[in-house]
């Protein structure tokens, strides 16, 4: 619904920073940020490599990506396409377009089509039925495992919007309401409350990509993205 509105590509969060150790203790975040974090887990590995650009990847996955990219198509099985791994289609969970993919055309709803007369299924409306040569452009409802049609709520995404969430520097996520501030200060071993500072930051495409990369490399993700 709000897929292309400018607001859906910008998320703000409130950081609590320990100015002495120059670290983010945690962030107070809205549903949008938590949806964004959980969404990362649903990304195909091929998409992650593409987003981070293969040359900046730690490890060997970048080489794997590059290998299939340059492999001549004559080596491929005729029913396979390199795009399946190089540009995987990403399921649309009904959330506003996630930050990382805001400028990418790969977001796909889970939709299937038929010609109506034959037992073929396509995931693309422009497919042509091998039997009757008609376009396979009739929608077939998709039923998820469990057999129940579950309507998405208006706001979409993964988590509910009624509470504020707490996101730790190492991306542990919990609802904010269950934690008292005294427990928190003890947990972080904060001796000087005066050294704490609140700061509002916003997450846009660039920070989204930095966060994705940092989440593979460090336990101080928020610190790296917002304080360095
Ligand atoms: Zn047909």
Model description:
The chain is of the alpha+beta class and 228 residues long. It has one domain. The protein contains seven helices and nine strands. Strands 8-7-2-1-9 form a five-stranded antiparallel sheet. Strand 1 and strand 2 form a beta hairpin. It is elongated and about 75 Å long. It starts with 10 loop residues before the first strand and ends with a helix. The N terminus is likely disordered. It binds zinc ion (ZN). Zinc ion (ZN) binds next to loops.
Task: Lay out the secondary structure.
Elements lengths: L10 E8 L4 E7 L1 H12 L2 H8 L8 H10 L12 H4 L3 E2 L15 E2 L3 E3 L23 E3 L24 E4 L4 E3 L5 H7 L8 E8 L1 H13 L3 H7 L1
Parallel strand pairs: 3-4
Antiparallel strand pairs: 1-2, 1-9, 2-7, 5-6, 7-8
Helix pairs in contact: 6-7
The structure holds zinc ion.
What is the gist of this entry?
The protein is of the alpha+beta class and 228 residues long.
